[in-house]
Design a protein that fits this description.
Blueprint lengths: L1 E5 L2 E3 L5 E8 L8 E6 L6 E6 L6 E3 L7 E6 L4 E6 L8 E7 L4 E2 L3 E5 L2
Parallel strand pairs: 2-11
Antiparallel strand pairs: 1-3, 3-8, 4-5, 4-9, 5-6, 7-8, 9-10, 9-11
């Protein structure tokens, strides 16, 4: 099982980024997957979840209406589209598979002017 995040970077407030989580060693669509983030000096927090098979989605209140989690079954990849980014969104973002507790290595997102 491997999860590899990409797509992070530096963006100005109000900008957008799309994070990708490429899964290997398993079929992502049959597992519930989430994005978490951890800002410096803070605990890791849940950002968004997409459930197995049916694909229901859940979001933290702080990102609702700005972020969208999705899945491309053909590419075995989970995405996090982030719009209207704010400085408080600055964190390392991690991909997570709930069954078995697998984490990716994380990708840094910095929102700053």
């Amino acid at each position: 099982v491997q999860l590899v995040e990409s797509g992070g970077g530096l963006v100005q407030p109000g900008g957008s980024l799309r994070l990708s989580c490429a899964a290997s060693g398993f079929t992502a669509r049959i597992y519930t997957m989430s994005w978490y983030r951890q800002a410096q000096g803070k605990e890791r927090e849940l950002v968004a979840t997409i459930t197995r098979v049916g694909g229901s989605t859940y979001y933290a209140d702080s990102v609702k209406s700005r972020f969208t989690i999705s899945r491309d079954n053909a590419k075995n990849t989970v995405y996090l589209q982030m719009n209207s980014l704010k400085p408080e969104d600055t964190a390392v973002y991690y991909c997570y598979r709930h069954s078995g507790g697998y984490w990716g290595q994380g990708t840094q997102v910095t929102v700053s002017s």
